[in-house]
Amino acid sequence: MGGLPLQGATSALALPGTGPKQNQVSDASAPTPESKPKKKICCACPDTKKLRDECIVQHGEEACTKWINAHIKCLRAEGFNV
Q: Quick one: where's region Disordered (predicted)?
């Protein structure tokens, strides 16, 4: 009988920490990691970022909408919500 309460306690301990409910939560959140960016925003799209930044420094923000939009498009493709 000493083994039965331990098994029941182990199951009870396992339910709050790793029970099926958490697995369901993990399954429900499975699409979320796909939509989350894999990189930090500062490290994503270095090419378009460089072009955007150089254009803004040289010509001002108003003249660089092409590069700004290209960078935003790239960031969105990487999973960022900008």
A: 1-39
Who's near 4: CB < 8 A, 6+ residues apart? none
Q: Cβ contacts of residue 82 below 8 Å, gap of 6+? A: 41, 72, 75, 76
Q: How far is CA 62 from the centre of its chain?
A: 31
Domains of the chain are: 1-36 (no CATH), 37-82 (1.10.287.1130)
pLDDT in tens, 11-61: 444 445 544 444 444 444 444 445 676 789 999 999 999 999 999 999 999
Ligand-binding site membership of 43 (annotated): yes
Q: Which of 34, 32, 66 is nearest to 52 (CA)?
A: 66
